[in-house]
# Entry
Amino acid sequence: MRDYREEFWKGLKELKDEIRTLTRELAELQRETDRRMRETDREIKEIFKELAKLQRETDKQLKETDRMIKETDRQLKETDRQLKELSLEVKNTTRSISELNGVWKSYSEKIIFDNIEDALKNAGFQDFAISKGIKRRKGDKEIEIDFLAVGDGYVVVLETKTTLKVKDVRKFVRKLKDKFLEFFPEFRNYRIYGAVVGINLQEGVEKFAFKNGLMVFRYRDKGEVEILNPKGFEPKNFGVG
# Structure
């Protein structure tokens, strides 16, 4: 007959051994769990620490950005103020220049008017009357003639410039061709000649004027108006007469 007591104690011993083994394993597992939790806790603290640092840097950058925006806004307002002041200065300067140009034009036209009669006579024109500053308007269109010499069957239209340029000659030719008779129909059967007068002349402007059939005069010192027409030059008749 088997000895059950021996087997019981043997089984009990094996159970104790298993419990001890399991206890050791549980203890080891607990230690590992504790270690991991401490590591996780440390990592979480590091993350929060880094987030706090980033938050401080972000706040600092936002404050700096806000300061820069305010400074930029201040500078824009200052620039706008300066631009307004500059615009006012430019307007005042432009007005002053315009007024000065007006005074100079009036002066130059006067000294030319006082001397152009002899110049026209030297160019071959006789028995004429000179008018200056003639303006005529038709509707919303206007024409201005600096000097107009009217003789027997002819007129000489004169354009004066402080500095005579090619663009001035081109514009004057269009005035003679397209506008003069529209505003001065009484001269339809007259011969119409054109002349330009300058105190200073852009290089090459005389040749361009001669090519377009215009006479060229230049104001010199001491009231002299010089004829620049080349020898044998015949002015173009812009009229129909």
In short: The two ends are 164 Å apart (CA to CA). The chain is about 60% helix and 20% strand.
